[in-house]
Each structure stands twice: as C-alpha cells, then as structure tokens.
Write a structure and sequence with these properties.
heterodimer; A: mainly alpha; MetI-like fold; 13 helices; about 75% helix; globular; B: about 600 residues; alpha+beta; ten-stranded mixed sheet; four-stranded antiparallel sheet
C-alpha cells in the first residue's frame, strides 16, 4: 500500500501550498515588489557588509557633499555618509515596523477572537473598548505617550532604545485587526466543524486555538503586511516631528526631519530616505495584495471570471 | 483592472527614475563648502578669536568712507514675519514691538551696536551719587533744542511723564528698577534729578525711551489712538498702519540730528514666514529681514552672491552646556555636596569635558566661522570680562580622566570608575536643528575621550517648565543641558540668579532662582553681594570679572559659542547695525542710506 493516510495528508498539504505559490506567482506585481523588498531587507539586514563608512562618523569639513563615487548618496549636514545612514536607518525603521505590527496583531487577534467567540457582554465590553481606542486622535496620543514613556525610569525604556515607540505604535493600531478577526470568528463559530468539535467535548480554548485561529489566519496575514507599512510610516512621522527614536541613531524618519532647511541646497538628504520609505511601503502593499489573492479562494475565483 | 494597474506601475517607475535623477541633475548648481575654508570668504569676517575687546561682528564693512557722503531720499523695506501688537513702548510685549517702537522713540540712554551704554537724548551719561541714608541720586543733563515730531520741545517734564506712564496701572512695561525711584525733580527744563530709595546698580538701563507729555490720559492707556499712531523724538513717525500688511514710517522733520534721517521713509512689511522672507531679500523685494538665527548661516552663505549680507550683535548670551553638580535622582537638593552627581561633581571630569570639546571646529563648520567661541559669562558690553579661551586637548582630557580613576576596564570604549559608567544624557529643545547638530558633534568628540553622551531631547516647554510643573531643570533631573542664556546689558541680575548659592531652586524657596548647576562658591557669593551695593561701574566690573574668572575655574557651565542677534540686509543699504539692546536692528536708523 503506497498511499497511507499520512501520505495523502502530506500530499494534500503540499498541493495546497503549491496552489498558494502558484496563485502568488501569477500576481506579477506582487512578485516584482517582493523581490525589491527582499533586496532592501538583505541590504538593510547586512548593512555593515555593504557600508564603507560608519553611519555615525562625522567629517565636518565635508558637509553637504552631493552624491559621488566616494559617497554614493552624498553626505549629510554633519558630513556623514548618506548611503551608510540610509541602509542602517532602515534597520530601526523596519524593526520598529515589525515590532509594532506584531504587537498590534497580537492584541487585535486576542480581542477579536474573544469578542467574536463568546459574544454577549464580553463582545459588548471589548467592542466598546475598541471603539474608544478608535475614537482617540492617534497622533496626539502618540506624541503624549512617547514623551511620557521616556520619562518613566523603566529598565527596558532606557533612552536611545526604540522599544517605547514600537510599543506605543503597536498599542494604538490593533483596532482594525480586532474588528476583522471578530467578524470572521463570529462567522466561523456557528459552522458545523465547530459545532462538531463542541459536541465531542472539546474545550473553548482548544476550539479557539485549533479550529478557529487557523481559519482566520489568512486575513490576519494580509492585515499584518498592510499594518507593517502603516507602522513604518507612523515611525517616520514621529521621528520627523522629533518624538521618535533619538539622535544620532539614524532612522528614515529622523533623517528626513533635518532636511527641511536644506531642500533646495542639498536635496539628496531628503530624497534617499524618502525614496526608501516609499519603496518599502509600496512593496509591502503589493506583497499584501498578492498574499490576499493567493490565500483567499473566493477572491481568486472572482478574479478569474 | 489590469490596464489600470499597468498604468499605475508605469507611473511609479517613472516617478522613481525622476527621483533618482534629481540629485545628479542639481549637483552642479549647489556649492559644497570648501574643505579647507570653512569660513565663507564672501561674508564680512566676523570672528576675531584673538580680539578680546568688544567688537561689532559685522558692522564695519558697510560703513562708507566719509568723503563719498550719504545719498538722501529713498525707501527701505523691512520684512518681518511677526506683526507688532502696538507701537507704544509702555505696552510693548514682544521683540518686534520693542524694535519698531525704537524707530519712533528715543531714550535718555540706549545701547549701541557694541553693547555699550551711550547717551542719546541725554547730553552725557548720568552721574550717580550715593546719599547718606543709603539711597542714590542720578542726575541727567538733557540735550538742548530737541523737539518731538509734533513740534513740542523735549524737557524734563517728559521724563516725569514717562515715569508716571511706566508705573501706571495699565502699563505692561517692566517696573524693575523704576519701582525703586521715589521721585523725579526738575530743577530746570534740561536737568533731571532721579532719587532712588536704595542703591540700584543697573540704573543706566532705565529710561531707554521717552514718551511726549500729552500722549494721553494714563487711565485709558490701553485704548489710545497714540498706540498705533505714535510720535516721539526718534527719526521716524507713523504715516499709516495697514493691519496684516504693512506699516509706513516717514521722516520726522523735527529730528534733532541735522540733515537726518537720510531716507524718506521706512516701510515695515509683514511677510508670511522667514523662508518667504529669505526669497524676498534674495530678489531685492525687501532690504532688511528681521530676526534670523545662526541656523540661517547656511542659506545666507549661499545668498551672498545675490547681494545679501547680515549684521549681528553679540548679545552677551552664550550657547552653553549646563552641568549638574547634584545627583539627578535626588529631587532639588540645596547642597550638591550632600547628594553629589556620580560623574559631574568631580572637577577633573568637568575639565576633561571642556578639553575634549573642539569649540573652534563647531564654530568653523556648523556656524561657518561667523561667531566667536564661548570663553566667558561676560563677553560683551560695558561689563565685558574677556577670559582666556579653553584649549582643545584630547590627550590632556584623557590624562585627566585616567588620573581621576576613570579607565575603560571592559574595553567597550567608555570609561568606568567604581562601577559607574562615564555615560551621561544631554538634553535640549527638540526640533532645533542647529542644537541637534551640535549635540551630535559633541557625542562624537566626547566618544574620543571615552565619554558617552546619550541624546534625550525634550520639547521646550518640558525643558523650561517651572518648579510647580515639575520642570526637569528646576528639580535638577538631568545630567547636561544645552541651551542659551546670558546677561543683558547689565549683568547684575543674571549673575546673581545663575551663579549665587541663594539662587539654587529648592522646595524651600519654591523653586526660584536659575542656579541649575547647584553651584556653590563662597567667593562668588561674596563678590556678587558686594557688587549689588555699588554704583561705580569700574568697581562693579572688577567684582564681576572675579566671578567670571572663578566660574571658568569651577566650570558649572561650558560656554560653546557666543550667540548673535541677527538680521539680514541687502548690501546697498548702508550703516545697517544691530544693537543687542531692545532696539535691535532699528538702532541708528537715522544713518541708513541707500547706495544708488
């Protein structure tokens, strides 16, 4: 007997995965931008390998040098190499984005699952909480919180770290995820397979984790990619306003913030970090687009009509 | 759907290509700074590090040789991003109010471009005499034949009236000093005798403007038409004021200096922003742009080819590092000896900090060589006390630190001593570009000496918050601060509130005083106490100079560079000067003329 039940299961799983890959590869833009994103990630993650100068080494007699063979992206207002600062700045920007997104997904999924599954007063309380968070003007709360968190003398919030800003951004952007997950969970909890599980005496926790969570995974993955882009932009915005990661640590946002005065005299100081934010956000959005198409069977069918 | 995506994609690629091409295309038009010549050669040379006397940094080059003679007539347009609220000096609330009222009003004693007190409506600087009962009498001789713009003669009665106006209920003027005056007498029309109840050393700063008698009823001061249409003894009078647009000042025909002002009129134009002003002065649409900062040197440097120059006055303020002697963990201690800062209480560390900072490099590069390095708390004015500049000596700084027991045992590049890492935070106002640049340069410089500085900037209202608002500066919750402060024309109150031990903010005095370093030196206290009771300028200068020298020994603060009061102007405008006093760029406006 060649086809044991296990072998069938493996083959099914493989074919599911293969189908996903096939669908994703059909989305040309998603593939193209994923490549660009991959390239940027390699560049940023391996920044020390690609840089010729340290991102903090200053050369005060060579400020505002235009791009040249020596300095591929020119030098900034303190004579630091822009290429090195741009690829190193990406490390913080991307890590802050990832962290913030993970926090947002974590909180959002938890709230959404509980709210959708239990319904009743749990749902009412959690959804009112979500609405409260949603109705707060985000930028102002972000500004207040980042300043406030820095003043608390907590060991993991030492000056110069990016934890507080990631935590704050994440803690303020989970509401969309929560609503999405709640909707999907409500739909799933009354379906036959959940009822069947309940019939044979499976506990609530196990139903939530084993039966419902995997089924809401695909919308979560898609929102996660979009949330990542949002978090990078928010970090850039905060750093631009001077409330983000402190100098001299480069991030794309705080590199931009110093450039207002030099837009006419040294435009390369603004163009390169700005372009990186632009590329990454666009790439992530297309990646999310591709993932959604690949993971959502209904969407594909519609698309192929 | 597919077509739309293709179009979008094509546009994206195009946009990226354009963005990528831009720097290369613009590169030839920009002018990078010469590597060996940080100071802009086209700007008037301002820095004279060896010159210890008080200098006007940029004034001299615009003054024409006397034989050419000034041209008369013409109009100068002044751009200001801020509109004044009033032109009555009694109600003036902002710097632009102060500056523009000085076009219309003159005072008995004013401050010239070098920061010195000079007589204007007085014939000479007044003499102060101490009386037997501990009071003081100051006698002014007034200039004869001075008329206000309405033709009335200027007499002692106008000085009395000005005093009444300043002390009146609705006045917004500072009464400090005036409140100690017990009476003003007029033995004759041109002699003013002012009696103080006790010795008031900075008496020269008073009466810097004189209102004409009959300007109005003091009980309705806030509603006078005079507030927007004033006249005084100054070179100009207001012709019209179009709110939000411009104010036209025309020549005062009765002005006391014969043949002046040379110009026919001065128009003050309200502009949307300083950035717009920069473009306008480059095009020649305005002749003067008020209120620039050292951060504008980059743009000014690039615009020197368009005929834009600047004038600056040493204000006596320094951009400085304020070092905390006390433990930041302890809330507002009165004596740092009881709660010493783990790093900065050690004099050797403070000396090493100063030696490891290359002030000249900061000035030459970030400030284009346009200011002088900071050397003393009293850099300019009547009480100037020049001190030897600190030397940049990295090896010396390292030796000092090693000698004091700070060694890098764990080889992480930062020194330690008894388990304390030589790491401190530096805070300034966030969003201030030049300060952020300075901080980052300092971080690098001090890293060379094995000192770690961690930048932790805060919004200005947090940095400068009061004691009750739990202000970090007042409560001593910092290691190092970077900001600007300094004495005005008379250093009496500044020195007392910043360096006297009685000015340490604590819970007991409800946080009053600005001695944020919590610096205590018995000699400094004694010199300041002695100087307060003196009227003799030379004797006071000597005592203040002792204080300045002692401060440089003890280093509660490290002076980085001297701040300037800056205004931009077009080179065809002659005799444009800036005074560090309230009159700012309007000082000497009667001497302005336009080179054809």
């Amino acid at each position: 007997m060649a086809e044991t039940p296990l072998a069938i299961a493996v083959e099914q799983k493989e074919s599911l995965f293969r189908r996903f890959v096939y669908q994703f590869l059909k989305h040309g833009m998603a593939v193209f931008w994923s490549m660009i994103l991959l390239g940027i990630i390699v560049l940023v993650a391996g920044a020390p390998l690609f840089q010729r100068y340290s991102p903090t080494d200053q050369d005060l007699y060579n400020r505002f040098q235009p791009p040249s063979a020596e300095h591929w992206m020119g030098t900034d207002d303190l004579g630091r190499d822009m290429w090195s600062r741009t690829i190193n700045g990406g490390r913080i920007s991307l890590v802050v984005g990832l962290l913030a997104m993970s926090i947002a997904i974590g909180i959002g999924t938890l709230v959404g699952l509980l709210s959708g599954f239990f319904g009743g007063w749990v749902d009412a309380v959690l959804m009112r909480l979500t609405e409260i968070f949603q109705s707060v003007p985000r930028l102002f709360l972000l500004l207040v919180l980042t300043t406030f968190l820095r003043q608390l003398d907590l060991p993991w919030l030492r000056p110069g770290t990016f934890w507080p800003i990631a935590a704050v951004i994440g803690g303020l952007s989970w509401m969309g995820v929560a609503r999405l997950v709640r909707g999907n969970t409500m739909e799933l909890r009354d379906q036959e397979f959940v009822l069947a599980a309940r019939m044979i005496g499976v506990g609530n926790l196990r139903i939530l984790l084993r039966h419902i969570l995997p089924n809401v995974a695909s919308p979560i993955i898609v929102t996660a990619t979009l949330g990542l882009a949002g978090a990078i932009i928010t970090e850039s915005g905060l750093s631009y306003l001077g409330f983000g990661v402190q100098l001299p640590t480069p991030t794309w946002g705080n590199m931009l913030s110093a450039t207002q005065k030099y837009l006419t005299s040294a435009p390369w100081m603004a163009i390169f970090p700005g372009m990186m934010i632009f590329l990454v956000v666009i790439a992530i959005n297309y990646l999310g687009d591709g993932l959604r198409d690949a993971l959502d069977p209904y969407h594909v069918e519609k698309g192929e009509k | 759907m597919k077509t739309l995506k293709t179009i979008l994609f094509t546009m994206l690629i195009l946009a990226m290509l354009l963005a990528a091409c831009q720097p290369a295309a613009e590169a030839p038009t920009t002018e990078p700074i010469e590597a060996t010549e940080p100071a802009a050669p086209t700007n008037p040379p301002a820095v004279q590090p060896t010159n210890t006397a008080v200098v006007a940094p940029t004034a001299a080059p615009t003054t024409e040789p006397p034989q050419t003679g000034p041209a008369t007539g013409g109009t100068v347009i002044v751009g200001t991003p801020q509109e004044p609220t009033t032109l009555n000096p009694i109600l003036a609330a902002s710097s632009i109010d102060d500056a523009l009222t000085s076009l219309v009003f003159e005072g008995l004693v004013e401050i010239d471009e070098n920061g010195n007190f000079v007589p204007v409506l007085a014939a000479a600087l007044p003499i102060a005499e101490e009386t037997d009962d501990g009071g003081m009498i100051v006698t002014y001789q007034l200039l004869p034949d001075v008329k206000f713009a309405n033709g009335n003669a200027f007499t002692c009665a106008d000085v009395q009236y000005t005093f009444d106006a300043i002390m009146s209920e609705l006045s917004q003027a500072s009464t400090s000093g005036y409140s100690q005056i017990v009476g003003i007498e007029c033995p004759d029309a041109l002699t003013v005798v002012v009696t103080y109840e006790e010795v008031y050393a900075p008496y020269l700063r008073l009466f810097s403007y004189i209102l004409p008698t009959g300007a109005g009823d003091l009980a309705t001061l806030d509603t006078w038409a005079f507030n927007r249409q004033p006249y005084g003894a100054g070179p100009w009078m207001v012709e019209s004021w179009t709110a939000g647009d411009n104010i036209v000042f025309v020549k005062n025909a009765n002005y006391h200096e014969a043949g002046k002002p040379y110009l026919d009129s001065v128009i003050v134009k309200i502009i949307p922003s300083r950035e717009v002003g920069m473009t306008m002065i480059g095009n020649g649409e305005i002749h003067v742009l008020w209120d620039l900062t050292e951060a504008d040197f980059v743009a000014l440097d690039a615009m020197s080819a368009q005929g834009v120059a600047y004038a600056g006055a040493v204000t006596g303020e320094n951009e400085l590092l304020l070092l905390n002697f006390a433990d930041p963990a302890v809330d507002g201690p009165a004596d740092p000896a009881a709660a010493p800062h783990p790093i900065l209480y050690d004099l050797a560390v403070r000396q090493a900090l100063q030696m490891a900072i290359d002030k000249q490099l900061i000035v030459d590069t970030l400030l284009y060589g346009n200011v002088r390095v900071g050397t003393t708390v009293l850099p300019a004015g009547t009480f100037a006390c020049p001190q030897e500049p600190s030397t940049y000596d990295l090896a010396g700084a390292i030796a000092l630190l090693e000698g004091a027991g700070w060694v890098d045992a764990d080889n992480d590049g930062i020194r330690e001593k008894d388990g304390v890492r030589l790491s401190m935070t530096i805070a300034t106002t966030s969003g201030n570009l030049l300060r952020e640049q300075t901080e980052q340069v300092l971080v690098e410089m001090l890293r060379q000496a094995g000192i770690e500085l961690v930048i932790e900037n805060v919004p200005s209202d947090t940095l400068f918050a009061s004691w009750d608002e739990n202000g970090m500066r007042k409560h001593g919750d910092f290691d190092i601060l970077l900001y600007t402060t300094g004495p005005g024309p008379d250093p009496d109150s500044h020195l007392f509130s910043n360096y006297h031990s009685a000015s340490i903010p604590t819970a007991d005095n409800e946080g009053s005083g600005s001695n944020y370093s919590r610096y205590i030196n018995a000699d400094v206290d004694a010199w300041l106490d002695d100087a307060y009771g003196l009227t003799d300028v030379d004797a006071r200068r000597e005592l203040y100079c002792n204080v300045a020298a002692q401060i440089n020994q003890d280093l509660p603060r490290i002076y980085l560079y001297e701040r300037l009061l800056l205004s931009g102007y077009r080179v065809e405008l002659q005799n444009f000067l800036v005074s560090p006093g309230a009159m700012d760029f309007t000082w000497g406006s009667q001497n302005w003329w336009l080179k054809p």
